[in-house]
Amino acid sequence: MSTHLTPKVKEIRQDAPNLKTYVMEHNLRAKPGQFVMVWLPEVDEVPMSIGWQADGEFHMGIANAGDCTQKIHETVKEGDRLGIRGPFGKGFSLKEGCKKIVVLGGGCGTPPLLSLSQEARKKGIEVLAILGARSEDYLIYEKEFKSLGCEVKIATDDGSKGHKGFCTDLLEAELEKGGVDCVYTCGPEKMMVKVAQMAEDYGVDSEVSLERFMKCGFGICGQCCVDDSGLRVCKDGPVFDGKAALRFTEFGKYSRTSSGKIKE
Ligand code: FES
């Protein structure tokens, strides 16, 4: 069910050159992996994942990635209110008896994995967070994952921090060691394809969080249907089982614009 909210922006933090964290004053109590639609009057409405959640607040890590998010970065100030609908969608699932999980976040895709890690740690589940970014400046939420008691491993493209290379290199080493019950990922789709494929090869469950252009956000308009499944990212996702996602024709290959045109 859609809830319309106008929470106050309590704090704004510049956490990476392209990403600001907006601390919103509201008890959202979203399931990890769910999203909200953020409305900027006279500009647009965009889907946004939910990061850290605490009593009386929830965080959104908003990357400057288009007209609406750029306008949010430029115009929204602490004390302003934002139009929010949601939370929507199917989030991550923590399986019964699960003892250790790996969360793998690529750049701006990291926020929902922080929310998932909060829930996992509350249940006493061991969490390894593998965080990837183009360089150290673009790494987000390392401190927050550590504050939850997660082990953190880092990969950067330029080697300015942690492993020089892909976070999937670090995942493979972990899967090789064994003892991982499930892998969760959000980030660039080509990376998520690799993660889901790697998990399948090692016989480990995985879940991936997809991002698509959205209009209604709750399953009515058909804008976010995934080829060839017909599944709606907003309602049947955004989190999908990794093996199921590997069968989507468009996974890691293309998405669609607001008019339905293919965008690679
Ligand atoms: S955005 Fe309308 S069905 Fe998903």
Report on this model:
- This protein is of the alpha/beta class.
- The chain has 3 domains: about 5-90, Translation factors (Elongation Factor Tu (Ef-tu), domain 3, Beta Barrel), CATH 2.40.30.10; about 95-210, 3-Layer(aba) Sandwich (Rossmann fold); about 210-264, no CATH class.
- The protein has helices at about 65-75, 110-120, 140-145, 165-175, 190-200, 240-245, and strands spanning about 5, 10-15, 20-25, 35-40, 45-50, 55, 55-65, 85-90, 100-105, 125-135, 150-155, 165, 180-185, 205-210, 225, 230, 240, 255, 260-264.
- The protein has a 7-stranded mixed beta sheet, sandwiched between helices. Strands 1-8-4-5 form a 4-stranded antiparallel beta sheet. It has a 4-stranded antiparallel beta sheet with strand order 2-3-7-6.
- Strand 6 and strand 7 (about 55-65) form a beta hairpin.
- Helix 4 runs parallel beside helix 5 (about 190-200).
- The longest helix is centred in the C-terminal third of the chain and has 13 residues, at about 190-200.
- It is globular, with a radius of gyration of 17 Å.
- The structure holds FE2/S2 (inorganic) cluster (FES).
- FE2/S2 (inorganic) cluster binds near residues 214, 219, 220 and 223.
- For this structure, what is the CATH class of the largest domain? Alpha Beta
With helices defined by DSSP (H or I, 4 residues minimum), what is the helix count?
6
SSE series: EEEEEEEHEEHEHEEHEHEEEEHEE
What is the CATH architecture descriptor of the largest domain? 3-Layer(aba) Sandwich
Described by the principal axes of the CA atoms, the overall outline is: globular
